[in-house]
Specification:
alpha/beta, 50% helix, 5 strands, 5 helices
């Protein structure tokens, strides 16, 4: 039942994420960058429960996209960055916006466990 926003510049990756997450019962919104993500969320009338963003995007990066979505939605949505970059520098940048980094290729079990935490926190807040 979670609304998950996936941001990636690769259409095949977005489609794969959509299929995986919808199979788990999530409502999935896909976007190639922050602008298209914000436009889609505004059409739907609200923020996502979680953002899964690739770090390297054609326009900007996942950190900037997460910041833009949070700012536009006025909501501190939970987020993860997907990246093959395993550097401490990226982890520090992600920590600076309170996001985690998941290494590519992301393990479905790890993603599902993180989403379960998001869902549990949402239920506790309600």
């Amino acid at each position: 039942g979670l609304r998950v926003l996936c941001i990636d510049n690769e259409p095949a990756i977005l489609e794969g994420m959509r299929l995986l997450l919808e199979g788990w019962g999530c409502e999935v919104i896909t976007a190639e960058d922050d602008r298209s993500a914000i436009a889609a969320l505004k059409r739907l009338g609200g923020p996502p429960d979680a953002v899964v963003a690739d770090y390297h995007l054609d326009k900007g990066n996942g950190i900037g996209a997460i910041r833009a979505v949070r700012r536009a939605m006025k909501h501190p949505v939970r987020a993860i960055i997907l990246s093959a970059d395993r550097s401490g520098e990226l982890r520090e940048k992600a920590a600076g916006i309170e996001a985690q980094v998941f290494a590519k290729p992301v393990k479905p079990a790890a993603l599902r466990a993180w989403l379960a935490q998001v869902g549990a926190q949402r239920q506790a807040a309600e």
